[in-house]
Amino acid sequence: MAETGTSRRVWIRNPLAILAENAGGGLVVEGTRIVELVPAGAQPSSPVDETFDSSRHVVIPGLVNTHHHFFQTLTRAHPVALNKPLFPWLQALYTVWDKITPDAFRLATRLAYTELLLSGCTTAGDHHYLFPKGLESSVDIQVEEAGPIGIRAFVTRGSMSLSVRDGGLPPECLTQDDDTILADSERVLRLFHDPKPGAMVQIGLAPCSPFNVTKRLMRESAALAERYDCRLHTHLGETLDEDRYCLEIFGQRPVDYLEEVGWMQSRAWLAHGIHFNDEEVGRLGKAGVGVCHCPTSNMTLASGQCRTCELEAAGSPVGLGVDGSASNDNSNLMEGVRHALMINRLTYGAERVTHLDALRWATEGSAACLGRKDIGRIEEGREADVALFTLDELRFSGAHDPLAALVLCGAYKADRVMVAGKWRVVDGQPLGIETGQLREAHTRLAHSLLGAS
């Protein structure tokens, strides 16, 4: 199927519903951007070259994923890690992940991008911290794979520098020294990072977590981020085990650690952010530190419940992430929206958190975590990143509010997805990707890892 979408003016006309104000008649796209919102019953203000009838579709901004580990698609539901909390789960899987080959990593990346895209995700953030021998060019592979798929990539150059021998958690074969990490961080920033609006590839720096990196690496990563105008990302406050580790090793809680290493700033966003007290929530909000809520992973590993409402009220941007496909165990961000609604209603009450809140976290909130004002909303001047869902399945029969139905009835696959003004999913299929062949090749390599472990 040929790729569609150019600098021609395209009217996505008369949607069944749309997550945008005063746009009942749809939106007009020209080049990579949204150039007009059309009120219900109206026509575009000037002629269009092409019209797409979206009367069967619910149109939302493209979802923005702010935390993932693509390589983990190879170890979903892996027997060594079933039914374990975070630290034992990690220690079990470290023995498998050190055997991932470049070919397997490439397919893992391709599959994760494709799976995210099919769920309506148009910007895919990944936190890649695994650099065993042979995978030194992992960031390069992730950038290469994003291009043909057409998804926006926000790849963070992660790292682990403290092994078990140094008092950390991972084995030595999965770590690198600080100088190697910092040199490669600067290399990939120079090669790939585009800080301009509309960027298709951006790079962030992401030392993995307090229990597997040095304070020097955290500080110097922050200095690099300032120099190259990029974002900072790490895991923080995910489990009570992490709290205990920080108190034992550093004599301080994770948020105090974050402040000491110079990360209490709006460039930074944190994965999980569960175990913060009231005072810490206030400090994070005042500094503008973002938090990526990972509801599916948090429930799978029984890590706890993110304080989304308090963090947002304090001033922290709150976004959503699927987290790694070995703790989720998929890469479906639309499913993550539903899980975010459910777990937050359980936390705060049915009247406090709505489907619109969950959708906002996955779009505008996630974009804010990444420091982007050009994506995350359907409005004039923003990038033309949109996801279109139909309500033709039995699960939606009888639904009255189409936007609420997407979340409450469990939408999980988009019918059409547009990224930067180009259709990348048509009739539920990613353009240019044979999903059956991808699945077979990926499964074969994943099973070879099982045998190796």
Automatic annotation (TrEMBL):
Boundaries of every Amidohydrolase-related domain copy: 58-423
Q: Does the keyword Hydrolase apply?
A: yes
Q: What class of enzyme is it?
A: hydrolase
Keywords (A to Z) from UniProt: Hydrolase
Q: What is the similarity comment for this entry?
A: Belongs to the metallo-dependent hydrolases superfamily. ATZ/TRZ family.
Name of this chain's protein? 8-oxoguanine deaminase
Q: Which InterPro entries match?
A: Amidohydro-rel (IPR006680), Metal-dep_hydrolase_composite (IPR011059), Metal_Hydrolase (IPR032466), MTA/SAH_deaminase (IPR050287)
One Pfam family from the record: Amidohydro_1
Tell me the CDD domains matching this sequence: ATZ_TRZ_like (cd01298)
The cross-references to Gene3D superfamilies, in alphabetical order and at most eight, read: Metal-dependent hydrolases, Urease, subunit C, domain 1
What is the organism field in this record? Methylobacterium marchantiae
Q: Which GO terms describe its molecular function?
A: 8-oxoguanine deaminase activity
The record's annotation in SUPFAM superfamilies points to: Composite domain of metallo-dependent hydrolases, Metallo-dependent hydrolases
- List the NCBIfam families hit by this protein, alphabetically: PRK08203.1 (NF006055)
